[in-house]
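In response to the reviewer comment on reproducibility (Comment 2.3), we provide here a single inverse folding case reported in full, input and output, so that an independent group could reproduce the run without further information from us. The structure tokens appear first.
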């Protein structure tokens, strides 16, 4: 049984990584919008546009070509995102295991499998993040800690992004808009769970 002090540290660490992901995705979106308006795609922040979600959005919007296979290859940014996400999942698991030990464990394991798959195949695994988000959000329904806004934000984000991920290669304004909304919701979800995890690390007694 994990000690209370270690559990609090895990919550705080997971809260920090969730906040990190939220900020990273937010800066990526701002950078993408800014470069689209100004036409200037230079600077350190431009590298954040290489995360796979922005790439998929560009594919649906017709801004890049699927024949160039932009999603294939080991992207260091994506690896970092997957590793940081798995740490976030650890904190979620320890809290949500009381609601569903099996499903919270599955969601956490999926986040680790995502890293392994991506390293082996250089293309598969990243969409597993969406499945983890969906599972965690559904488990949160039984938990009294996370708000309904957090729950439904996570569910909608994962569903919208899944639709976009499964339809890569199809140029559709509707899917582009849906995927963009999903990206915004996912970013918000990370900020929301970060706040809750920080609260658990600061106040929860077990």
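Designed residues, in position order:
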């Amino acid at each position: 049984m994990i000690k209370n002090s270690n559990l609090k540290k895990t919550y705080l660490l997971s809260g920090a990584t969730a906040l990190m992901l939220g900020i990273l995705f937010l800066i990526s979106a701002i950078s993408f919008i800014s470069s689209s308006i100004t036409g200037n795609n230079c600077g350190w922040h431009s590298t954040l546009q290489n995360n796979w979600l922005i790439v998929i959005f560009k594919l649906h919007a017709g801004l890049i070509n699927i024949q160039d296979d932009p999603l294939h290859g080991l992207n260091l940014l994506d690896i970092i995102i997957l590793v940081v996400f798995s740490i976030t999942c650890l904190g979620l698991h320890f809290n949500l295991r009381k609601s569903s030990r099996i499903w919270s464990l599955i969601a956490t394991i999926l986040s680790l499998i995502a890293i392994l798959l991506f390293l082996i195949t250089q293309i598969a695994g990243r969409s597993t993040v969406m499945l983890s988000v969906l599972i965690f959000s559904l488990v949160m329904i039984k938990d009294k800690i996370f708000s309904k806004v957090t729950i439904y934000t996570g569910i909608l984000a994962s569903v919208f992004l899944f639709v976009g991920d499964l339809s890569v290669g199809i140029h559709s304004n509707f899917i582009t808009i849906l995927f963009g909304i999903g990206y915004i919701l996912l970013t918000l979800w990370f900020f929301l769970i970060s706040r809750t995890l920080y609260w658990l690390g600061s106040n929860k007694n077990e």
